[in-house]
Design a protein that fits this description.
The chain is built from 7 helices and no strands. With about 170 residues, it is mainly α. It starts with a helix and ends with a helix. One of its GO terms (molecular function) is protein-folding chaperone binding.
Length: about 170
């Protein structure tokens, strides 16, 4: 699916700040209408199209509901594509990453569930701060480097948050 169609698919204007509840409602309504099971009694071509529409809708929803992916998508819509796998040239943030990883490792070794919970809350607050910063600068082409740096930071925090959730699940068992 072409990146320019993600917002159009949901009939919403391109924006970073989205009403995620409304997006979810719209997704469920569209998913119901495009679900391949609704086309089970049709010809092969129609069924394939239904599967493709459903897959495209799922992909678009995942991108739009995830701040880092939505941010990257918005820059791509403006022709400001960036390499998501590029090495981060952000020494200050790299040092912060090391500190977070060391802290998380210590919390894991101590099996400190309350400490992990507090760590997770701090990560969430940092993610919110990054989202606010991106929201304030993404439309300004002069701040392109800052917007890209914020996206890379958001991506790292998404991965770290996922690791924290996995750790909580392992320790809760």
């Amino acid at each position: 699916m072409a990146p320019s169609s993600y917002f159009a698919l949901f009939d919403i204007p391109p924006a970073f700040d989205l009403d995620l509840a409304a997006l979810g409602d719209r997704y469920r309504a569209l998913a119901k209408d495009t679900h391949p099971d609704r086309y089970a009694d049709t010809d092969d071509a129609t069924r394939r199209q239904a599967v493709q529409r459903s897959a495209s809708l799922n992909e678009a929803y995942q991108v739009l509901k995830t701040p880092a992916l939505r941010a990257h998508h918005l820059l791509a819509l403006q022709g400001r594509a960036m390499d998501l796998e590029a090495t981060i040239q952000d020494p200050e943030f790299l040092m912060q990453q090391l500190a977070w990883r060391e802290e998380l490792e210590a919390l894991q070794e101590a099996v400190d569930l309350s400490g992990i919970s507090a760590f997770k809350k701090r990560l969430y607050n940092t993610q919110q701060d990054l989202a606010e910063a991106f929201s304030a600068c993404w439309q300004d082409a002069a701040q392109s480097a800052k917007a890209e740096r914020l996206i890379r930071r958001m991506q790292f925090l998404d991965k770290l948050s996922q690791q924290v959730r996995q750790l909580e699940e392992r320790l809760d068992d």
